[in-house]
Design brief:
- By secondary structure, the protein is an alpha+beta fold.
- Helices cover 36% and strands 11% of the residues.
- It has 13 helices and seven strands.
- Strands 1, 2, 3, 4, 5, 6 and 7 form a seven-stranded mixed β-sheet that branches.
- Strand 5 and strand 6 (305-314) form a beta hairpin.
- Helix 2 packs across helix 3 and helix 8 (126-137) packs across helix 11.
- The longest helix has 14 residues, at 53-66.
- The radius of gyration is 24 Å and the shape is globular.
- The termini are far apart.
C-alpha cells in the first residue's frame, strides 16, 4: 500500500504544494508550463478590484474575446470600452483601463516588469502593481489583498485591523513566499483565502498551514482579522427622468469625471447629493407631464445608499436638449447603461429586468 505523501513542515513549501494540487483553472491564470501573459494578468487584476471572481469570469472572457491584445484595446473607442464594462461598477476603472492600454501600447517594451514602473501607469495602485510584477514577471513582490490579510491575521492571531498593521502583514506574507516561484506564491496565498480560509466558514482541516495557525490553536478563527466598527452608509434621495418619444428614450452623456463618468445615462438629479423630493422637478430635462412610478429604485454604492424615484413622461419634441440625444429603445442594451440606470429602465418597462 502506497503511503500518502507527507505534508511539508515548512510553511512556504506546504503552501505551494497545496496550490499545485488545488489551484482553480481561471481564464486569466497561465497553465502549468506556460508563461503568463502580462496583458491578461493586468486585465484580470483591474477587473477584480472590488469585484468577485464569479462576477468577473464571464465578463473577462467576453472582454478578451473582443480585444485579445493591449494594442487592440488601446485602439478601441472609449465608448465601446465603457459599454463593455457596464455592470462591473467603479467606472473610473474602465477609463483608466483604456488610458493605461494606450500608454502601454505606445511603449516600445510593452508592460514594464518592475513594481515601481507599473505603479506609474493609469489605474495601477500599490497592490495591483505588486500583483502584476509577481504574477506576470515572477518579481519578488508582496501583494496583499483582502484574502491575504485574512490568512496572515489568522495565522498569527493579529488582533489589530489589518490597515493599522500593514507593515506587519506584509512582513508575514513575505515570509510565506518562495523566491524561485514568486508569482505562484502570491497566487497561492490569495487562493488559500478564497477557497479555504474564508471569511465566515474557514475549512481549517483542509488548510495546509493549519499546523502553524494561531487562530486555530486558540479555537477562534472567526475573531480574525479584527475589524473596526463599520460606519453606517448615509442614505440619499434622488430622481431619474425617463423621457419617451415613440420608441426612443432620452439619454445624457455624463461628464468624464464623477459618478458614472463618461457614460450614457438618463437625466437625473446629482446622485451623489441628497436631494429632497420637493426639489426633484427642478432637475427634469424639460417641461413635460412627469409621472412618478410607484416604486423607486435602490442601489448601494461604496460610500452611500441611494433611493431614486423614477419619473416617466412622453413628448413629441423634434429636438433633444443640447446635452442629450435620443436612443432607440431596442438599442438600450448596447448603450452600456450603468446598473442603476438599467434598474430604472426595467422599472419603466424599457428593458427586461
Amino acid at each position: 500500500m502506497i503511503k500518502p505523501r507527507a505534508r511539508s513542515t515548512k510553511p512556504a513549501e506546504a503552501l505551494l504544494a497545496w496550490y499545485d494540487a488545488e489551484r482553480r483553472d481561471l481564464p486569466w491564470r497561465a497553465r502549468r508550463g506556460e508563461a503568463p501573459d502580462p496583458y491578461r494578468v493586468w486585465l484580470s487584476e483591474i477587473m477584480l478590484q472590488q469585484t468577485t471572481v464569479a462576477t468577473v469570469k464571464d465578463r473577462y472572457v467576453a472582454f478578451l474575446s473582443r480585444w485579445p491584445t493591449v494594442e487592440q484595446l488601446a485602439g478601441a473607442p472609449l465608448d465601446d470600452v465603457l459599454a463593455q464594462w457596464a455592470g462591473l461598477g467603479y467606472y473610473a476603472r474602465a477609463r483608466n483601463l483604456h488610458a493605461c492600454a494606450r500608454e502601454v501600447a505606445g511603449a516600445s517594451g510593452g508592460f514594464p516588469r518592475e513594481e515601481a514602473a507599473l505603479r506609474r501607469l493609469p489605474g495601477v495602485g500599490p497592490y495591483t502593481a505588486a500583483a502584476i510584477a509577481a504574477i506576470a514577471f515572477d518579481q519578488p513582490c508582496v501583494a496583499v489583498d483582502g484574502n491575504v490579510e485574512r490568512v496572515v491575521a489568522r495565522l498569527h492571531a493579529i488582533d489589530k485591523p489589518p490597515r493599522k498593521v500593514a507593515p506587519l502583514i506584509r512582513e508575514k506574507a513575505a515570509a510565506l513566499a518562495t523566491p524561485s516561484r514568486a508569482g505562484d506564491s502570491v497566487q497561492a496565498l490569495m487562493e488559500l483565502g478564497a477557497l479555504v480560509c474564508m471569511p465566515k466558514n474557514p475549512d481549517c482541516p483542509a488548510c495546509p498551514l493549519s499546523f502553524i495557525c494561531a487562530a486555530r490553536r486558540l479555537g477562534a478563527p472567526l475573531d480574525y482579522p479584527a475589524r473596526p466598527p463599520k460606519p453606517q452608509k448615509p442614505r440619499r434621495r434622488g430622481a431619474i427622468f425617463i423621457l419617451r418619444r415613440g420608441d426612443e428614450a432620452l439619454l445624457r452623456r455624463l461628464p468624464p469625471k464623477g459618478l458614472f463618468g463618461g457614460m450614457n445615462a438618463f437625466p437625473s438629479t446629482p446622485l451623489t447629493q441628497d436631494v429632497p423630493a420637493a426639489a426633484f422637478a427642478g432637475f427634469a430635462p424639460c417641461a413635460a407631464r412627469w409621472r412618478a412610478l410607484e416604486q423607486p429604485v435602490t442601489h448601494v454604492f461604496t460610500h452611500f445608499a441611494l433611493e431614486a424615484t423614477v419619473f416617466v413622461a412622453h413628448t413629441r419634441a423634434k429636438f433633444a436638449p443640447s446635452d442629450c440625444r435620443w436612443a432607440a429603445r431596442a438599442n438600450l442594451d448596447k448603450e452600456g447603461l450603468p446598473t442603476l440606470m438599467r434598474k430604472a429602465a426595467a422599472r419603466a418597462g424599457l428593458v427586461d429586468a
